[in-house]
Amino acid sequence: MTVEIGLVLDWTGQELHWHEPPGRSAGHIPDSHDLWEFLFENRGMISGFAHSHPGSGAVGPSYEDVTTFAAVEAGLGLRLDWWILNADSMVLVRWAGPDRLDYSVTPVAQVPMWADYLRRRSGMEPWEPPRVRAARSEALGKLLGDLPGADTVEGDQT
Ligand SMILES: [Zn+2]
């Protein structure tokens, strides 16, 4: 199952707090009073919040995401880095202004260390370059093919 979970990042950009509320489902993080409390109490040491969207391909903030970002930033009195990722894409969303809901969306090339953990915890395969994936599949295929009685090789699930 693919679920949407979140990760609060500290001022160095490292993992600070995983947000995995009960009742979460694909595409939606329920409003969480606990998360808000955590953000507010730690507002002196947080830099951003990352969350996952199920699926693959282009990824970006939903309207609900953007209104949530704006409300959280207004409540905290500071701007945050909002990371959104899915199985193979990742973007950084930041307030650009001048209006309340004017957020810029920038594709992320340098993938942070925690991105694969977040994907795994969301039930996604960690992303790997197609070349690496192909090499791994081939090696696995050879390995399975060498086993006695192995006439079927499990294909790449993605
Ligand atoms: Zn979202």
Compact summary:
With 158 residues, the chain is an alpha+beta fold. The protein has helices spanning 33-41, 63-76, 115-121, 130-146, and strands at 6-10, 15-19, 46-52, 81-85, 90-95, 103-107. Strands 2-1-3-4-5-6 form a six-stranded mixed sheet.
Question: Which short descriptors sum up this protein?
Answer:
6-stranded mixed beta sheet, alpha+beta
- Percent in helix: 25-40%
How many strands? 6
Give the SSE order as H and E letters. Answer: EEHEHEEEHH
End-to-end gap: 14 Å
State which percent range the strand residues make up. Answer: 15-25%
The number of helices is: 4
- Summed over residues and divided by their number, the pLDDT gives a mean of 82
Please give the order of strands in the largest beta sheet. Answer: 2-1-3-4-5-6
Structural class by secondary-structure content: alpha+beta
How is the biggest beta sheet arranged?
6 strands, mixed
Bound molecules: zinc ion
Could you name the ranges where pLDDT drops below 50 across 5 or more consecutive residues? none
Q: What is the rounded Rg?
A: 19 Å
Secondary structure blueprint with pairings:
Layout: E1 6-10, E2 15-19, H1 33-41, E3 46-52, H2 63-76, E4 81-85, E5 90-95, E6 103-107, H3 115-121, H4 130-146
Parallel strand pairs: 3-4
Antiparallel strand pairs: 1-2, 1-3, 4-5, 5-6
The structure holds zinc ion.
